Amino acid sequence: MFNAIVIEKAVSGTQAKLKALNESELAQGDLLVDVVASTLNYKDALAITGKAPVVKSFPMVPGIDLVGRVSKSSDANYQVGDLVLVNGFGIGEKYWGGLAEKASLSSAWVIPLPKPFSAHQAMAIGTAGYTAMLSVMALQQHGIQKQDGEILVTGANGGVGSFAISLLSQLGYSVAASTGRPEESDYLQSLGACRIIDRCELSQAAKPLQKEQWAGVVDCVGSHTLANALAATRYGGAVTACGLAQGMDLPASVAPFILRGVTLYGIDSVMQPLAKRKQAWQQLAELFDAAKLTSISREISLSDCIATAESLLKGHIRGRVVVNLEK
């Protein structure tokens, strides 16, 4: 038997509970792991609270990230005792995920836990830090140099935003952080933000074109915020879209694209091929800062997940939430 957060259909909507499950209830993957650490992401919070149709089948164990220690393996590439990392591939949505003490996985989803990270450090990074790294890599591949101008990060207090600020700052970029919590300015500046922008400046209906302000953008918010970010991006700049905290809509015009040559990059963290995942994690390892990682993250137990999911959606939590499955 093992403990897990389980989301089930209810009379009205869904309901999440902490339950004891039997190992025989797990799907038959070629790897069985004892989960060491997982995370509570925005998507996990939506699934647990039922605020969005994240879950594709029921019952479901949420958790789109995990680090696990292999306990059974039918893949010669992985031995009992190996630590493996999973981000995405539908776990926590289509397949049982990481908010459980055990998980059954396909070896096609996992990579060895990258050095120099411990399981808990890797989960402090998790999908949020990995997505932020993919966003930064897109800006780099677009050719944006640190001397080209400021980079805007929206949703700055969230997990992706916090990591994007830290990574961009370590790479020498000047970062503007957009937040709805001005009381967190000291935190954002400690991560490397050079200036703080009130999110109200970006969250209203956008004009098609605005004064050119930033060379690039990491947008975690969507909707009007993304439209405003596009409208104020400099000629030839790039914007990455990786979140929808404000909404899935994009009430923008084609003006930034056809008059300023702005490029919009969609960042998907779920189905990235393993080679791209390893590249992103390698760059994360090169930029690894243990002190900043500690300041960005907090730790909870499995039994805390349901209450913490509500707080996360209300915007009461900054940075990353690591779930310690050995606690």
Topology:
Elements: E1 2-9, E2 14-21, E3 31-39, H1 42-49, E4 65-73, E5 83-87, E6 102-105, E7 111-112, H2 119-142, E8 151-153, H3 159-170, E9 175-179, H4 185-191, E10 193-198, E11 214-219, H5 223-231, E12 233-241, H6 255-259, E13 263-266, H7 274-286, H8 290-296, E14 297-301, H9 305-313, E15 320-324
Parallel strand pairs: 8-9, 8-11, 9-10, 11-12, 12-13, 14-15
Antiparallel strand pairs: 1-2, 3-4, 3-6, 3-15, 4-5, 5-7
Average pLDDT: 94
The number of helical elements comes to: 9
Biggest sheet layout: 7 strands, mixed
DSSP strand content? 25-35%
Instruction: Tell me the series of helices and strands, N- to C-terminal.
Output: EEEHEEEEHEHEHEEHEHEHHEHE
CATH superfamily placement of the largest domain: Medium-chain alcohol dehydrogenases, catalytic domain
Low-confidence stretches: none
Described by its quaternary structure, the protein is single chain
Q: Could you please say which CATH topology of the largest domain applies here?
A: Quinone Oxidoreductase, Chain A, domain 1
- Relative helix content: 25-40%
N-to-C terminal Cα separation, in Å?
17 Å
* Total individual domains: 2
Beta strands, count: 15
What structural class results from the helix and strand content?
Answer: alpha/beta
What would you say the CATH architecture of the largest domain is? Alpha-Beta Complex
**CATH class placement of the largest domain:** Alpha Beta
Radius of gyration: 20 Å
Shape: globular
